[in-house]
Amino acid sequence: MSVLPVEPLGQSSVIERLAAPHSGPVPFSVEFFPPRSAEEESRLWHAVRVFERMGPAFVSLTYGAGGSTRDRTVRIAGELATSTTLTTVAHLTAVNHSVDELRGLVGAYADKGITNLLALRGDPPGDPLGEWVPHPEGVQYATELVELIGTLGDFHTGVASFPEGHHRAPDLASDTANLVRKLRAGAEYSISQIFFDTDDFLRLRDRVVAADAEQGAKPLIPGIMPITSLQSVRRMVELSGSVLPERVADRLAAAAGDGPEEDRAAVRAVGIDLCTEMSERLIAEGVPCLHFCSLNFARATSEVLERIGVDTRGALAPA
């Protein structure tokens, strides 16, 4: 699918975008991943145009494990920044990259006009839960990556956070301390890993404020996703080391039924209900933004957004 260029509008920072006028009770943002085929790329750009018409605060583009989608990621991120009106956040991971390569990647993003980066240590390629081995000429922690980006120019950096605690952290206190270190290193905000228990996110927010009130004042953005397949979400939490709460799993399993194939329509309906309920509670708790993992689809997230009061009229119609 060809992408028609528009006059670049310049990339605001995420913090500026969160403070800008928005449709709905809070700003929202959307995560995409780099497509692996022409068909997937067409689907991605359809979703991009749908969300663009709704006015998200920003969109983000993930980075393949070990840089497996490096060139495609840089290209797609550049097209998002220059061929749409969307503020684009590019993910950057330390896995399998030397410091020189990381500098080159930051420069490649800058050449595309991208100044918003999400600094991640990243997961090992092949087995996300496997042993993490730093590049001999790279960095060991995301904190170092934040610091490196800070030496390279006027960039706006965010980091990841983990409501249930990172699976490599020995305990929640250690995980919270690590997030605070990343924020102190210069990160302006954090986006959480996807979670399905709102209390986990709210307790993380409490821990950060208790550990360092100044850093706790920075935006902590919840990462959420409308579930459309029980099998897929089970696989997702298995690979991430996170947990699907029993009450959520029970609702989804009841919808899936006892047949050889899950009732996808019923699971999807429950998944959208669950995501809407989470969104409404997070809004009531004063979150600065809702960050939706879209999996490069638009409709399920759009349904949640409509339910919480975002103006989606005409967004799903062909441009």
Automatic annotation (TrEMBL):
Alphabetized SUPFAM superfamilies for the sequence: FAD-linked oxidoreductase
Catalytic activity: (6S)-5-methyl-5,6,7,8-tetrahydrofolate + NAD(+) = (6R)-5,10-methylene-5,6,7,8-tetrahydrofolate + NADH + H(+)
Top-level taxonomic group: Bacteria
Pathway involvement of the protein, from the record: One-carbon metabolism; tetrahydrofolate interconversion
InterPro entries for the chain: FAD-linked_oxidoreductase-like, Mehydrof_redctse-like
UniProt cofactor(s): FAD
Record keywords: FAD, Flavoprotein, Oxidoreductase
Family under the similarity heading: Belongs to the methylenetetrahydrofolate reductase family.
Protein name: Methylenetetrahydrofolate reductase
Species, as recorded: Gordonia phosphorivorans
